[in-house]
# Entry
Amino acid sequence: MKTVQLQTTADIVNNAQRAGLMIPAFNVPYLPMVEPLIRAVVDQDCFALIEVARLEWIKFEAQSPAAVMAEFVKWNEPDYVRIHLDHVPVIDEDNQRVDFLAIIREAIELGYHSVMVDGSRLDLEENIKATRQVVEMAHQAGLPCEAELGAVLGHEAGPLPPYEDLFESGLGFTDIQEAERFVRESGCDWLSVAIGNIHGAVSGVLKDKKKVEARLNLDHLDRLREATCTPLVLHGGSGVKREHLLAAIKKGIAKVNIGTEIRQAYESALRESGNVIAAQDAVYERTCWLIRDYFGLAGSRRLVK
Ligand SMILES: [Zn+2]
# Structure
């Protein structure tokens, strides 16, 4: 009997980059979001990642990598979705050291299909060193590893400087030469870059606010792609100016993380109705809309798989 090998997540993200498409990665701060997310991806005939970041089990209700995996397995559609471990910071948004290797090792043992280490709060040498350790662990398990260079701000508790000042000054943007060296020496498979994108706030009253509309420096992205020759990842995918986002996908952004937009859909429906099913419906509707109308990825699965 012929066994059909599942295509790896690494292949799928490479295919997306080659086709000028991207793989959306949906964040899960609340466990009941997993089911409607997967249903929306299947109904739109798209391919996507379901992902959880450390702060989603620390500051929200995702509980643990094991809890998200258990929920994922319940609804899993392997032809449509894979599960990714998002941001495990070496130093977190509150400036605390994190035992990142233990968390990532656990996720790999749980069966996650890809992982991310975030050493972006370290200096270049330290970031390369930490990322290299995770890359070796992930590659031994046959999994791709995402890393971050530059500062995708927004998760920190304090207020951000005015967005226009950030964008104009290029403060925190991923440096071109550093990116070339970082990818070569760390061996990371996917690189999360800072080109004007920001994360949605996660603390205090700010977490319910509409995100500022971010712009992207597309020339900078061109130079990063040339320098790294690897799939690039855009974090903070909610609320980026649409023309910029679509142009960035054509220019090599092969994975886009979407957190704030679907989290706020879930939270506001739950607040208004007090009903988890209504909140799940809101996530389903918003995710279908994002895939179909915003990103234009309905029916794109056959192009990446
Ligand atoms: Zn992120």
About this structure: Residues 9-295 form a domain with the TIM Barrel fold (CATH 3.20.20.70). Residues 213 and 267 are 21 Å apart (CA to CA). Residues 87, 152, 199, 235, 257 surround zinc ion (CB under 6 Å).
